[in-house]
Amino acid sequence: MSGLTTLGEAALGLVLLLGIFQSGCSLRFEVKDESNKTCILADLSVYFTVDYKMADTKTGKSNFTLPNTAVLDNSSSCGVKNGSAVPLLAIVFDSGNVLSMNFTKTDTDYKVDQLMFTYNLSNPVLFPGSTENGTKQVASSNTEMSAHTNKYYQCSNPHLIRMGNANVTFHNVKLEAYLNGNNYSKDVDVCKEDVTPTVTPTVAPTTPPVNPKTPDTGNYRVNGTSGAACILAKMGLQLNITYKKKDGKEASFRFNIDPKLVTVSGSCSNTSALLRLSSDNLALLFTFTLNTTANKFYLGRVSLNTSVPDAAEPNFVVDSGSLSFLETATHKSYKCNTKETLKITDKFSMDTYSLHVQAFDVEENKFGPAVECADDQNGMLVPIVVGAALAGLVLIVLIAYLIGRKRSHAGYQTI
């Protein structure tokens, strides 16, 4: 399930996991030239995480989304530079915050050449207690947002871009530059986070055994922006999928996650933490949510993207965001040595083995005090009851022996 990590990174972007990404509502922006021809068309949702300085050397963390009030900035343009079109999409929101994208192209494709984010530290709502004033700008030329000419770029899952003290996560994105018309092209290029496997997962045999062996236990870790762990997970994972075969019959596909074959990635914000396990043909995302009112965290979302041998529809995709598994108080960890089945949907469930997990408030990169699952507690109950019964039996025998001796002595009198 090391692959979980890989998924995680994209996942980070995956802030999917949080209710923020559950809305699926994107904002549309359109840049036109002087002849009213569209050169950039974009539908997107964006989630920001920014670290900033506070008093007493403290670091604040601000989390916010691109609001519905965001509009095109006047700097947006289909402009021309050195004889080549260099479109710019700039979005302004909340008094001085600007998110902008510069596009470049070749004969075969185009890309977001540079992403820039300018944020206003003087805004007390977004940056309460900030000791800095004015605006600050961060940028990245490693956006991995590109598509072939006459195709639009699409990324439904979270796509994270790190820029110094700021993380920008895109999701539910549809984007195209250098359009031929005034609407999106018919064909699409999807981001790596949305890629659906086209071959049998390397983590599963072509002909899966009916009852595969107990999965190996993997150790997975996701670090926060400070470099310290924000998710720790130790578990063996077995995935159970119900599907229809090419002949129309229903079948089951069960396979283990091999920790040695997966990549681990993810990200964390104040109220959500993403763990992603991925390989060439598998993407498994866990989203943990923090309930700040109840001071508890839980597994609130699971997404799976894989393929199934001999299925009528080989691509198997599940995204369930209404879960409440593994609920545990903050600063503590959840532990379950016993096999535990998590039913994600009617067609997909996971069996966990030797599970130990903690999200948020991880101290010194170690698990907090463990809260054991009900099955483990019941398992401990049997030896406790048996031990108590044996102790009670020994006590009864001892009391009977003492009473017997006392009566025996009472039968003799001194002459």
Provide keyphrases for this structure.
single chain, 415 residues, mainly beta, Porin, 2 domains, 7-stranded mixed sheet, 3 helices, 28 strands, disordered N terminus
Description of the molecule:
It is a single chain. This protein has 415 residues and is mainly β. It has two domains: 182 residues, Porin (Beta Barrel); 155 residues, Porin. It is 12% helix and 47% strand. It contains three helices and 28 strands. Strands 1, 2, 3, 12, 13, 14 and 15 form a seven-stranded mixed beta sheet that branches. The chain is flat, with a radius of gyration of 28 Å. The N and C termini lie far apart (86 Å).
Topology:
Layout lengths: L2 H10 L6 H4 L4 E6 L5 E16 L5 E7 L5 E2 L7 E2 L2 E2 L2 E6 L3 E9 L3 E12 L14 E6 L5 E3 L2 E5 L3 E5 L2 E12 L9 E4 L27 E6 L5 E16 L5 E7 L6 E6 L3 E8 L2 E10 L4 E12 L7 E6 L4 E5 L3 E4 L3 E4 L4 E12 L10 E3 L1 H37 L5
Parallel strand pairs: 12-15, 25-28
Antiparallel strand pairs: 1-2, 2-3, 2-14, 4-7, 5-6, 7-8, 8-9, 9-10, 9-11, 12-14, 13-14, 16-17, 17-18, 17-27, 19-20, 20-21, 21-22, 22-23, 22-24, 25-27, 26-27
